From TrEMBL:
One example GO MF annotation: aldehyde-lyase activity
InterPro entries referenced in this protein's UniProt entry, alphabetically: Aldolase_TIM, FBA_II
This protein's name: Fructose-bisphosphate aldolase
Organism: marine sediment metagenome
Taxonomic path: unclassified sequences, metagenomes, ecological metagenomes
Gene Ontology terms: biological process: carbohydrate metabolic process
Length: 96
């Protein structure tokens, strides 16, 4: 399934009265586990990562891995950079 926009995902959840889990992920093993659990529940999912893993692995590499896993899942998934105060780094990640 395609990666979805957080605003659209949360507006739909609000309208239909359900919650969306958001999980901070620091590696591919955690990502696989969280996606597997959400798929099992047929639940939408927000995958968050903080600045440190994004800088360590390079945004384009991390985004490619997360995007590949998210797009192969049969549920809506949103990717989110959590707690970033560096506007330039936010842009770099958004472009990745």
């Amino acid at each position: 399934m395609a990666i979805v926009n957080a605003k659209e995902m949360l507006l739909k959840a609000t309208k239909e009265k359900y919650s969306v889990g958001a999980f901070n992920i620091t590696n591919i093993i955690q990502m696989e586990a969280v996606v597997e659990a959400a798929v099992g529940k047929k639940a939408p999912l927000i995958i968050q990562t903080s600045v440190a893993p994004s800088k360590f692995l390079k945004p384009n590499v991390l985004a490619a891995v997360y995007r590949t896993l998210a797009e192969s899942a049969p549920i809506p998934i949103c990717l989110h950079l959590d707690h970033c105060t560096d506007v330039d780094f936010c842009r770099t990640c958004a472009d990745a």
